[in-house]
Amino acid sequence: MPSCPLQQGIKLAERIRKEIESTSFTYKETRIWVTVSMGITEYIRGQDLHQFIERADQALYRAKNSGRNRVVAI
After folding, report:
1. Owning domain of residue 23
2. Which end of the chain has the lower number of beta carbons within 10 A, N or C?
3. What is the pLDDT of residues 27-53, one digit of tens each?
4. Does residue 1 form part of some domain?
């Protein structure tokens, strides 16, 4: 999200996570519940694209490893 401060990104990600968590989906006539983990980071001036994606990936794995269904920012 261009020009979006980290805290605003976290709030949006948390809203999305809660919406997914509270929505039931139907697959082949079976209700299923879905959760999502998200890694959030902020672009640091001078970072290249690889470094930026690597930081977001690290945040995602922290979210998964700390219990899933959460938003982690670094």
Report:
1. 6-73
2. N
3. 999 999 999 999 999 998 999 999 999
4. no
